[in-house]
């Protein structure tokens, strides 16, 4: 009876550990989930053969979970972990942006301490039957070498259509495996370090491959659609955290909504412009996306090589436009100090060669602050207005704008929003596409309102010949990221009709 009780407590102990270790995978929305127990936890269990001093359990548990946290946090925001921690002086430049993160950190630390205490209580309560814990660890070690990894859910695990047909389309990107012993994130640490080291000396050209990215191309949309001299005025709008929903049918509904917004402006827009949609892969954070679209680079490390080491990129659309007589304009809703270190907004835009540059420091003199996240910024619509107004002064223009209002931690302000009047009407139509997740719906509605504002201004002025609007990466908010495809982002291009 005592042995049975000890086994049940062991099961509870392992369940708690699995929850700690595998929870982050679910929060990150990883397409392939692997269930195992870290080798540090296994060592922890084996030590019970030799000592009953439980302080070692606490120490090793803390070390193990600290490694998970160190690796997890950069992944949450699509960073290489070494680049992420190299930028920590940004905390001192903009401490307000990290207040929420620190609160979460304190909550997590308290929870981890409580969990470790509970695990120790379980082990102590086994008394003489404590040997079941190291025996279990030994069995896992044997299984690691003797048994193959088990695939529990097939590639066709999640339906994407409401149809009950046996032939319904399935999402091929969600898999669940049972392994035995994990490596505490060391493989990820090594991979990130290798990429970080490469960023000192080399640039990787942008490329998507069908196997890993669900699409295939070697040119970023900006380079593909805007790098020529066939038109006089081009505008690139890089949209913060605009990602694709994982379920294609639901993503199609969102694109149809944006098309309806385009058509709602009537002949003043549709008579003169045509709208097309597309998708491309993303490999990292906003810095990576800027390098992708403006320099056709593949990742954040290439961004670093360009900015810090002056490595020549495969393309530079700003330089190309300058050489062909265009006036180049760059605007950013937030501060020119955004990102600190290598992702300093002003430093990057200056290195690219933009002739006109403006930021929150200039925009805040004319517009009120936006309060939808912790960044000092005006409304993204004000940035777009400023870009379009500045463009009127020149015959040939290439303009680039980066938004910030939809950056996490995002909180939609429906009362003070520039375009909040359709909020509840659209919610009735699209809320279920987001699995009734309020945060995800709010963020998309805000993105759609910024896009719609762009449609409105284009319909009024008709200055630009081509406008490309593209997401930088999927929404990283842990409350919503499981809804999104972690490989691709959407884009739309508006082109003047011939």
Short description:
The protein has 498 residues and is of the alpha/beta class. The chain is 47% helix and 14% strand. The strands form three sheets. The protein has a seven-stranded mixed beta sheet with strand order 7-12-11-6-10-8-9, sandwiched between helices. A three-stranded mixed beta sheet has the order 1-5-2.
CATH topology of the largest domain: Alkaline Phosphatase, subunit A
Which CATH top level class of the largest domain fits?
Alpha Beta
Computed structural class: alpha/beta
Number of β-strand runs: 12
- Distinct helical segment count: 20
Q: Biggest β-sheet, characterized?
A: 7 strands, mixed
Describe this structure in words.
- By secondary structure, the chain is of the alpha/beta class.
- It has two domains: 2-153 and 176-192, no CATH class; 202-496, Alkaline Phosphatase, subunit A (3-Layer(aba) Sandwich), CATH 3.40.720.10.
- It contains 20 helices and twelve strands.
- It has helices at residues 2-28, 39-46, 55-76, 81-86, 90-93, 99-125, 132-146, 186-198, 210-213, 221-226, 248-263, 267-270, 286-295, 300-309, 317-323, 345-352, 360-363, 380-391, 423-430, 438-461, and strands at 32-38, 150-153, 158-159, 170-171, 175-182, 233-239, 273-281, 327-332, 356-358, 397-402, 466-471, 488-496.
- The strands form three sheets. A seven-stranded mixed beta sheet has the order 7-12-11-6-10-8-9, sandwiched between helices. The protein has a three-stranded mixed beta sheet with strand order 1-5-2.
- The radius of gyration is 25 Å and the shape is elongated.
- The N and C termini lie far apart (84 Å).
